[in-house]
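Progress note, project year one: complex with nicotinamide-adenine-dinucleotide.
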Amino acid sequence: MAGTQRLEGKIAAVTGAADGIGKATVELFAREGARVVANDLPGSKIDETIGGIENVVIVKKDVTDADAPAAIAKAAEEAFGGLDILFNNAGTAAGAPVDELSDELWDHVVSLDLTSVVRITRACLPLLKKSGAGRIISTGSVMSSFGGQGMAAYTASKHGVLGLTRTFAVEFGQYGITANCIQPGAIVTGITRDVFSEDPSFSEYWKNKAPVGRLGQPEDIANAALFLASDDAAFVSGVGLLVDGGAMQGI
Ligand SMILES: NC(=O)c1ccc[n+]([C@@H]2O[C@H](COP(=O)([O-])OP(=O)(O)OC[C@H]3O[C@@H](n4cnc5c(N)ncnc54)[C@H](O)[C@@H]3O)[C@@H](O)[C@H]2O)c1
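Model obtained:
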């Protein structure tokens, strides 16, 4: 079904696009008229999940690799002639309690969930400046604002993503670029669907914690990304947008 074409003429790049939030966002952005560079790991299922979508080109790269940021920017420029919307979304929720946290795990999570965001944004900045109305959207978490058991590296990284977002907003506003961070609650995706199905008490906990009474779906986050990517959000910048069904509002 054709969308409302809210992104007609726009060029977007989405990382972590083979599954979950990234996949739903590529599908929605393409339906809304955008041309999209979709990134995921070599060996991921990206060809099967979004390979057939018109006006989508795929870049198979690990976002933590040294050459990944330039490859994403180059693909946008070569395939579509520029970039208007960057969605930094690839991430992991790997974790361990602090007293069991290895340096290797810490480095892996920080490099993927935080450092890749600044590296990819830096590489795409010249194209976003040229756009004149660039959009940087990054996937944080409710844990960009709160702590979590066994989630030190994730929590630190996702706090960092919100901090980076605020600095992007301050530094890049002069180029017409906005930067915002989406803070998802419990969403059923590749990193959570096994836990939710294998541990009903975990799933029930998050369902009950959200006043709207359900788990989130990838489309809930894609819809927020669409708003932030659209002209409607031209005056929204530096924001952490909780998309969690109200889960973090009560005590
Ligand atoms: N699912 C949730 O409840 C939830 C909550 C808060 C935040 N998030 C965040 O949402 C983002 C998307 O995750 P999701 O929940 O959709 O999970 P997902 O597993 O469904 O999708 C993540 C995608 O990122 C890809 N990826 C992983 N490492 C990569 C790398 N090094 N380079 C390129 N691609 C890589 C994976 O292959 C996968 O396709 C992540 O940043 C995650 O931290 C998710």
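The beta strands are 11-14, 35-40, 56-60, 85-88, 135-139, 178-184, 240-243.
Residues 65 and 116 are 9 Å apart (CA to CA).
No further modelling is planned for this target in the current period.
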